[in-house]
Amino acid sequence: MSKIYDVIILGAGPAGLAAGLYAGRSRLSTLIIEKGKDGGQIAITDEIENYPGQIVEGESGPSLIARMTQQVEKFGAERVTDVINSVELDGDVKKLKSAKAEYLGKTVIIATGAFARPIGCKNEKEFMGKGISYCATCDANFFEDFEVYVVGGGDSAVEEAMYLTKFARKVTIIHRRDELRAAKSIQEKAFKNDKLHFLWDTVVEEVNGDGILSSMTVKNVKTGELTTIEADEDDGMFGVFGFIGTIPNSKVFEGVIDMDERGYIKSDENMHTNIPGVFVAGDVRIKSLRQVVTAAADGAIAATQAEKYINENE
């Protein structure tokens, strides 16, 4: 008979690790299942400045996550590396199945995260964290007085572009259409902003540089004309922010858990999903701010609610 855990946590990003810490500390038998490296999106972030209590002199995503992982280990959460292919979440015992094993738990916390939709240009991966970013709140500071380009034309792209004008000396929105998709009220503010410029009917084809982003090739979708944009000689680099949406890691739960049309999982403020004993935390749920600090808070709430659920159902 397989062991039945009190809590199974899917994902070892900040939400999953915070949940593991709280569950383990509450003496619940806890299993964390992660398919890759701990940390999720934050694991590829070179520098963090806005996490409360971080090392002020310099904190990277990996260094912060390494300490979170140590804390989780201290309180006894078990770990396994695996990919879950199917789930059965109704009933008192939840089943999570992979190609090689079946995991049983009284409760499940889904902390599978989300990932930024890639810009889709050549060499994009090489310059992630080296000029290309998908989070203005995280990285705007690093582009103070530099030139920055924002790819996208929806609400979030335009709002993030306006936020970036507080830091960068010039922000250019690159949009594949000849008008923005953002709400009219947001557009009005954008067009009044002197630091905001627009490159219409354009997509990014390729990015380049010697270890750091310093040039990109863009294409006019109507004429097919290619243009190479080079960094200012004094700067030696520029930033490109992609805001063409995020994709939640929720496919395995389709048709099982209530989601919105984009695949983000619905929950109440206490991280309850529509299935009793199943909770959600972090970027995979519907929320207004996707940051390490909010993911960690979600994880803490989910774990304490899981404990409450177990106590009430024993």
From TrEMBL:
InterPro entries: FAD/NAD-bd_sf (IPR036188), FAD/NAD-binding_dom (IPR023753), Ferredoxin-NADP_redctase_2 (IPR050097), Pyr_nucl-diS_OxRdtase_2_AS (IPR008255), Thioredox_Rdtase (IPR005982)
Co-factor(s): FAD
Keyword Hydrolase among record annotations: no
EC number: 1.8.1.9
Alphabetized GO MF terms: thioredoxin-disulfide reductase (NADPH) activity
Reactions accelerated catalytically: [thioredoxin]-dithiol + NADP(+) = [thioredoxin]-disulfide + NADPH + H(+)
Keywords: Disulfide bond, FAD, Flavoprotein, NADP, Oxidoreductase, Redox-active center
One GO term of the biological process aspect: removal of superoxide radicals
Cofactor note: Binds 1 FAD per subunit.
Annotated Pfam families: Pyr_redox_2
FAD/NAD(P)-binding domain mapped to chain residues: 5-299
GO annotations of cellular component type: cytoplasm
Summary of subunit composition and partner proteins: Homodimer.
PANTHER family listed in its UniProt record: THIOREDOXIN REDUCTASE 1-RELATED-RELATED
Family: Belongs to the class-II pyridine nucleotide-disulfide oxidoreductase family.
Protein name: Thioredoxin reductase
Gene designation per UniProt: trxB
